[in-house]
Amino acid sequence: MTGSVPDAGWPEAIRVFEGYRDLLVGVAYRILGRVADAEDVVQEAWLRWTNVDFSEVADPRAFLVRVTSRLAIDRLRRLKTRRESYVGPWLPEPVLTGRDVAEDVALAESVSMAMLVVLETLSPLEREVFVLREAFGMPYAEIAEILGRSEAAARQLGRRARDHVRERSVRFETDQETRQRVTERFLEAALGGDVEALMEVLAPGVTLVADGGGRARAPRRPVHGADNVSRFMVAIATRPEQDLRTHLARVNGGPGIVVTSGGEPVAALVLDVADGVVHNIHLVANPEKLAGARATGTP
Length: 299
Prior knowledge:
By secondary structure, the chain is α+β, with helices and mostly antiparallel strands. It has helices at residues 10-32, 35-49, 60-83, 99-103, 105-110, 113-119, 124-135, 140-147, 151-168, 176-191, 195-200, 226-237, and strands at residues 202-211, 223-224, 244-251, 254-261, 264-274, 277-284.
């Protein structure tokens, strides 16, 4: 390793960075919506960390969050251009989360698929402020320092982001037991090929959005309506393909479904539930976006 850290300081430098790694991955993932991109950003933050004079870093946490969020925003701006040519709908990458995330309602909501989809409609700066403030509770004074702007400007960005999210968000069920029960009913009906039972758990205006990225079979336009969605789900759930396994998992802060083949994930589904029925289905089948469905983490 190279950098400004004296050899005797490496153990402490590593200890400090590793202590904040989960926080940094969480910040980067919420800004970028992809695990691999988040991990790349955190690795780059580590390289920056090895080249600082620690005697001039009064608050390592603030320093590392500032570096990570800035790197994430820079990457997000580059990725936005690529996403314009993406094949079919673009969805955030699903990630398995631990029980501790699910039990913290605010944290679970901040990493939910529904929230990440809405965050995609924010400007990069609005997204950064929203994530730092709403997901991690940072004071505006600290956010302003990270942005290199006044506190008043940071508050204005935060207010604009909150209003935007509020306008585009639908309040879905946050009770984990209810969501678990609905997800179980959904999965049982789909695997059983029972269209009528599946329709009972779907809202009349349910929408399915599938992300195959042109690399997996998936509808390139949203599927609307309980009848269409139920028939589509039964058709893919009952295909006579060998070695497919389906199981319930904690995905993005709540109950979800992971489909594997040969032990590797081939699809992940997250359901938005309200009033005891499913209103939205997010299905990710792009193999490049399933790394987060392989191992449990806590973004």
